């Protein structure tokens, strides 16, 4: 649900987004090093710790809850973008 909400919000706001999910079955749609390097900002919608968080070192990171990604995805994207405007 969070993935779908963020994808719809990004499309509405005219931003590109790539989403990796991690759960009981492991990582899905795992981000490549090139995708991470090209990213302007990283959004971590998490309620528990994730594996591989060190991959995002040097990138602006906005961390929020999964529920925020579901209920207010446009706000999540806008707040993440504020990280790169500073």
Automatic annotation (TrEMBL):
This is PTS EIIB type-2 domain-containing protein. The keyword rRNA-binding does not apply. Transmembrane segments: none annotated. Keywords: Kinase, Phosphoprotein, Phosphotransferase system, Sugar transport, Transferase, Transport. It comes from the Bacteria. The lineage of its organism: Bacteria, Bacillati, Bacillota, Bacilli, Lactobacillales. One of its GO terms (cellular component) is plasma membrane. PROSITE patterns: PTS_EIIB_TYPE_2. GO terms for biological process: phosphoenolpyruvate-dependent sugar phosphotransferase system. The keyword Iron does not apply. Pfam families: PTS_IIB. InterPro entries: Bacterial_PTS_Sugar_Transport, PTS_EIIB-like_sf, PTS_EIIB_2, PTS_EIIB_2/3, PTS_IIB_fruc. Residues 1-82 form the PTS EIIB type-2 domain.
